[in-house]
Design a protein that fits this description.
The protein is α/β, with parallel strands linked by helices. Helix content is 40%, strand content 17%. The chain is built from 14 helices and 11 strands. It binds nicotinamide-adenine-dinucleotide (NAD).
Amino acid sequence: MNHSSKVLPASVLLMVAGAKGAVASTLAVAAAHLRTDPESIHHSLTTAGLFPDLPPFYAIDFVGWDRMDAPLITAIESHGVLPKTIWADHQAVLNDRVIRPAPSSNIPWQDQIDQVTADIEYYKSLYPKSQAVLINLLPAGKRIDMENLKTAEMLFKALSPTDFPDLTYVLAAVRAGIPVVNFSPNTVEVRPIVDEAVTRDVPIAGCDGKTGQTYFKVALASALKARGLFVDGWYSLNLLGNADGKNLMDPERAAGKVANKTELLDEILGYRVGNRYGRPTHTVRIDYYPPRGDAKEAWDVVDFNGLFGLPMSIRLNLHGRDSILAAPMVIDLARWMVALKQAGRSGLIPELGFFFKKPMGANPPLTFQDQVRALEKLAGECGQ
Ligand SMILES: NC(=O)c1ccc[n+]([C@@H]2O[C@H](COP(=O)([O-])OP(=O)(O)OC[C@H]3O[C@@H](n4cnc5c(N)ncnc54)[C@H](O)[C@@H]3O)[C@@H](O)[C@H]2O)c1
């Protein structure tokens, strides 16, 4: 089927912070491809058959911000995620995507928010019939405890916008009434932002997309738990050669991601893995290994005990593709957010825990089964 000759329907408009990154640029190509050949990739979307009242699943537009000056096409080429044969036919559309520069980190925080707010208004004017969602795909940053920062003023006073650029985009989006997907491991779900989101009827979903190793870890841990098999230790190694992997070489930046990948196992199982050794035996390592590029490799060694405590183990070796796994999830999440906003949901959406390593909000579902069930229930709330 070719939709290019038709009048384009209203779309879901992705406003992407970090629009030229590996995930975002893959997303831009997927959005272009959906317009011309939706059938060839619709199976990658879990929402393709949902939400008939929304713009169709193939109607996705893309704008955003990045610090990088190079054109989007150059970014696509340099990330090396997609062979040229996949994006060559979409060059004209990709060249037309409007990606504005990130606000300078040298101007006051409020001025940065004002700049992003003006950009949002401009993007809305370009796509007046579209339903916008902010997608946070900025690099992993520092992790700090923001629990005590209860007002926007406290936030501005305690933090530097250079260290927490995500907050600039998220605040501007929430104030403009735009739902937010926080795919990064960075904390944006702070009290002042969530309060404002509730006041303005804006849903927020996050954080840290659960794309590869952790997705399978949740499924496997849930299966072991369901059979009463005791997990004695779990060693997880990630070999990652893209910019995200390089960035995560910095221990301060990796801390949040490693914590998100680690904490969930004990939460799923309901006990502390390694307790009998007096120390955790769930280890997660992320190593930057350039030859892998975006084609990340993950190794898992799972030691577990059965009847009479007799030991057994599983080896799992994932040869994944980070951005290929992530991009369709972002589209699905954006469509969920539009549906949830229409259904009147606001604030954090813990029921979307299926998509995240660290689902934000009260009592998120933890096991794989509960996460799937929560999604089905949420679909019911959205009239499915
Ligand atoms: N790929 C996955 O499987 C996966 C899974 C979970 C989470 N994530 C997270 O998604 C995020 C994006 O991943 P990626 O691989 O695309 O990273 P990336 O480093 O390739 O992309 C980040 C982009 O953000 C841009 N940027 C940096 N600072 C900016 C600013 N202040 N304003 C606007 N743009 C800015 C960079 O120039 C770059 O283009 C990361 O936080 C990563 O940890 C990825």
